[in-house]
Amino acid sequence: MKRAFILFWYGLTALLAGIANWFTVILGMRDDSKYGKILRRTVGSCFAFLMLLLAIAAGWDFCRTACYRLEVNRHFDDSYYDTQYISRNVTYYTYYDEDGFLKTADGKKTITGIKWIARPLGMDSLICYSDGKKRGYFNMFTGKPVIEPKYSHAWIFSDGLASVDDGGWIKFIDASGKVVIDPQIPYIPGAEGYVFHNNRCIVHNERRDRFGLLDKQGKWVLKPEYFSIESSGNFWIVDNGEGKSVLDSTLNTVIPFTKGQIWVSSEYISVTLSNHIIQRYDHSGEIINDFYINDVSYMTYESDELRYSTSKNYNEEGTLTSETENIEPLPVEKMAKCRRYEAESGWYGLMTADGKVITPPSYCSIQAIGYDMYLCKDNDEDGVILNGKGQRIG
Q1: CA-to-CA distance for 343 and 366, rounded, in angstroms?
Q2: How far is it, in rounded angstroms, from Cα 306 to Cα 331?
Q3: pLDDT tens digit string along 195-248?
Q4: Nearest in space to 374 (alpha carbons), one of 363, 388, 360
């Protein structure tokens, strides 16, 4: 095998040398005349130029790959970073888990070593940021720090105020860093969201088991006696442990305490009662509809009638070749007398075909087992059998 490869190599090189010699003879490159010398120099120059281009291309590709691997571009090109628009004058640059920095429109870096930023609500212009150890604030239009990082915890500005953890106590500061509200509430790990909405802020008591509303003057407009308080637009949803109520921006009652879930949209207030009935109110608390239905479907049951089905066989062209009757008959499916409706998602009740409600939506599943008999389950295991009048028959 070794000898065969050696002979093949000698033959190949001899063939290539013969072809090259033939070309030099045909082109007159072996001639010592002026034409031959010019031709040899031209061919040699072209070959050298081609080799130079290949070397430049290989070197460029190597340098580009090395720069990509070593991430050199980030030191020269800002497009390497992820950017976040802050204002017309300030941009925030960051790259993966590395520290970010601020740069103004004239190319100057104002703050470096930023771990994260949090924008304010409304018209406030101070942005909260962290250097990895402490939190402070910078101006979104100048990019310069206004309140140096000195707080262990700090929240965004809202309605001109921001909450900070000052030595383990929750305090509210203004844009100059001056403490304007000191509710004497300790910071408790896990407590978040000290943000003003409609000039009021949700704040917990010193045990963090009840919540109330604090105004911008530091007064309790709702004492911390509620299990939860949620802001929703211009409304507040409060929970006293027995039910939920909706208050307007002036803290007047719109929806009294009700057991169930409440959702406020820009157009109406939706209430899902504990019995799974859905009601809807306008923003003044007037009832729009006291019984909403999400879906209605008919039900089928297996009757006593049987039918024999057939199996059909087709060839590759789709032509029927044979048909055989199945041995086992199948029951005929028929439509039940009543319909099944859905109120809250996953909860059903019975209704007549002309839309009259028979039972409340108290069942997680309803199945027709006869023309006018229905298996209704209130969980995955237990169930009762009702007739079309909602009466229990089994």
Answers
A1: 13
A2: 4
A3: 998 899 999 988 888 999 999 999 999 999 999 999 998 999 999 999 999 999
A4: 388
Both tokens of 127, joined, read 């942005």
Q: Tell me how far apart the alpha carbons of residues 257 and 287 are, in angstroms, rounded to a whole number.
A: 15
Token pair of 63 as six digits: 């340098």
**pTM (two decimals):** 0.68
Strand order in the sheet with 100-104: 82-85, 90-94, 100-104, 109-114
Confidence (pLDDT) at 76: 47
Q: How high is the pLDDT of residue 98?
A: 84
Q: What is the DSSP string of 69-114?
A: HHTGGGGT-GGGSEEEE-SSSEEEEE-TTS-EEEEETTS-EEEEEE
pLDDT of residue 227: 94
- Is the pLDDT confidence value at 25 over 80? no
In sequence order, what are the beta bridge partners of 325?
310
| Whole-number pLDDT of residue 311 | 77
Residue 47 phi/psi, 5-degree rounding, is -65, -45
Is pLDDT at 51 greater than 60 in this prediction?
A: yes
| 62, 155, 179 from 166: Cα distances, Å | 54, 12, 10
CA distances, 345 to each of 237, 265, 278, 288 (Å):
22, 18, 10, 20
DSSP code of residue 132? S
Which residue from 262, 281, 282 is spatially nearest to 272, judged by alpha carbons? 262
> For residues 213 and 200, what is the distance between their CA atoms, to the nearest angstrom?
6
Confidence of residue 70 (pLDDT cuts 50, 70, 90): low
Q: How many CB atoms lie within 10 A of CB 301?
A: 20
Give CA–CA dist 329/325, Å, rounded: 10
Query: Are the C-beta atoms of 90 and 142 separated by less than 8 Å?
Result: yes
| Token pair of 310 as six digits | 């057939």
> Environment class of residue 79 by beta-carbon count within 10 Å: exposed (0-12), middle (13-18) or buried (19+)?
exposed
User: Rounded distance, CA 324 to CA 300, Å?
Assistant: 28
Q: What Cα–Cα distance (Å) separates residue 131 from each residue in 8, 9, 37, 163, 278?
A: 70, 68, 73, 18, 48
pLDDT, averaged across the chain: 88
